[in-house]
Amino acid sequence: MDVVALLALLVLGIVVLTPLAARLGVPQPVVLTVYGLLLALVPAVPAPRIPPDVILPIVLPPLLFATTQRGSLRDLRRDAPAVLTLAVGLTAASAAVVAVVAHLLGLPWAVAVVLGAIVAPPDPVAATAVARKLRLPPRLVTVLEGEGQFNDATALTLYQVALIAVTAGGIGVVEVGWRLLLEVAGGVLIGLAGGIAARWALARLHDASVETTVTLALPFAVYLAADEVEASGVLAVLAAGLFLRAQGHSATTSSGWLLGRAVWRYVDFAVTGLLFGFLGLELTNALEASSRLSSGHSLGVAAAVVGSLVVVRFAVVHAASAVAGRRARRRGSATPAGWREATVASWAGMRGVVTVATALALPFTAQGGDFPYRAEVILVALVVVIATLVLQGLTLAPLVRRLGVARPGDAAADVRGLRRDATRAALRALEGAGGVSARARETALGRYRARLEHQSALVDLFDEGEDDPGAVDEVGRLFLVGVDAERDTVLEARRTGRVSPDAADEVLLDVEARAARFE
């Protein structure tokens, strides 16, 4: 079996197991990792060897950029102290504690620091998926997502500095400071420059496919540019992505935004799924390659690392929550988070994509040999990922329910209210628009008045749905009946040649966009 067949098997696993994971209530990464482990047991399945120097540039840019396209800068600024505490303070503390533990268990200091940097950053994918499904408080979701965006920069900066110390044979304090400054400042500046250039290009392009191509190329371009000057590619991607998130929408056409949103959702889904499937395969390789596994040393290190990561996260998160609570009480404002929210945030520390990618990307030394203890470091890192995904990933949702942290509100109600408010704003703008005929104005106003009446009726119906839940379900079914009739009419017209395919697809775009709201 060749690598193409292996890729096909991984894709098949994603297609089949993703809906199964949702039905079972199990995080998708857990199911795909188990699938990769089972694949590795099949004798005909190959064990591909990916060159270490191409893993990070291929995997990290799209995943990091995709995370910036969720959330808002306003929420990040509001919760910046909590986000920075976790993304910088907790990540550095986790790396330090793991380094001490690993050194006490026999790894050299430089190698132990590399291991600490590899396993320090949690993966927000599974945690935020559960958070949104269970309607955790918005602030807690923002903090977890913000941590997931910025802890990678902290961990990867530590990772790269530690790698230099190992592969180049040592590094001085002055050089460490210079490299940190270059990593941070250079990465941010390159990312902002790339974001500004991309927005300039988007404002002059009016084709959805071309616009999406620009956004796809941007994270790879800024990552490679930063890497070329030894700056932080992670910070470059984050800076570019956050800039476009805040400033790029007005420069993009509506169709370009819709296409880009769909493409980035898929890229995030596909890359993450493939990497977790590959994790199971690579764990088997690491087990076979670890020369010290017979004594149980590697698994002992992994168990100690998992325990230390859980303990340090609980300590830092609860301490930070207590400090924030005291400050809020002194100001007379609402306490931002209690012990229940802090406990949930403490347990949402599953490791994932970045840990896998950085472990597999361990390079060769300057002498051309393998990275010292490479097999053992990879094995420990992959075991940490699997252990935290299974242990914390499977128990996070029950913990949330047990602590009663989920908020009672309904996110769908916010959507309905916002649509009504947006329609009212459109009506006010049309009524004040000048330089048009009365007939044109009334035509446009008529469309928005009908939409406002529709949105208001929906808000009233769903707000009263507790008294008549059957009516709410009936409205959804009726909408789908109407959409099915529209779709059949358009497809029949396209099939018989009554209209051109382009015209039919244009109408279908609107029909399917409305249908997707009720799926």
Q: What is the fold's blueprint, element by element?
A:
Elements: H1 3-24, H2 28-40, H3 52-68, H4 73-78, H5 80-104, H6 109-119, H7 124-133, H8 138-167, H9 173-204, H10 208-228, H11 233-247, H12 254-289, H13 297-331, H14 339-347, H15 353-360, H16 374-393, H17 396-403, H18 411-432, H19 438-463, H20 469-496, H21 501-516
Helix pairs in contact: 1-2, 1-12, 2-12, 3-10, 3-11, 3-12, 3-15, 5-6, 5-8, 5-13, 6-8, 6-16, 7-8, 9-10, 9-11, 10-11, 10-12, 12-16, 13-14, 13-16, 15-16, 18-19, 20-21
Give an overview of the whole structure.
By secondary structure, this protein is mainly α. The protein has helices spanning 3-24, 28-40, 52-68, 73-78, 80-104, 109-119, 124-133, 138-167, 173-204, 208-228, 233-247, 254-289, 297-331, 339-347, 353-360, 374-393, 396-403, 411-432, 438-463, 469-496, 501-516. Helix 2 packs across helix 12 (254-289). The longest helix has 36 residues, at 254-289. It starts with a helix and ends with a helix. The model has no long low-confidence stretch (mean pLDDT 80).
